Structure prediction request, 115 residues.
Amino acid sequence: QVRLVESGGGLVQAGGSLRLSCAASGTIFSINIMAWYRQAPGKQRELVATITRGGSTNYADSVKGRFTISRDDAKNTVYLQLNSLKPEDTAVYYCNADIDSRWYWGRGTQVTVSS
Prediction:
């Protein structure tokens, strides 16, 4: 069974950095698009960044220039580097991936940014 497991969240002061990881496990033949979403309390889940198998990336306007998505296909892992964090970045961050033509979600990792 395919699983996505996020890690790397935590509490950080405004202006700080975190690096999130999401590892896929199970029987996997191909991972296409990988993405990060986030959901703040009382708000809808929103797309943060995506990366294709070829390495093309897209970002939400609110994180452009501060966050960087990357992937290591040898490890079936996607990363999200969060720099210059702001209190409004506080949310649960979820990994999402198209694995063998089926979409999977992780359970999320909490990021809290204090002012």
